[in-house]
Write the structure tokens for this entry.
Amino acid sequence: MGYKIKNTIRKSKATFIILAVLWVILSIVLVSALTISITDATVERNIQFGEFYTKYI
């Protein structure tokens, strides 16, 4: 039974690697967009992060 699982993982290793890379890229893009928006809101409009977090998130 174990050889079936090992064989399946070996066959789909490239797919797992591609999915992991895309996941990391997507995470970086989304987190950076959120960080930039929070930073702009606090610097330009003098909004406190605590108020921003409780009202909008």
In short: The mean pLDDT is 81. The chain is about 90% helix and 0% strand. Residues 13-44 form the longest helix (32 residues). Residues 42 and 49 are 7 Å apart (CA to CA).
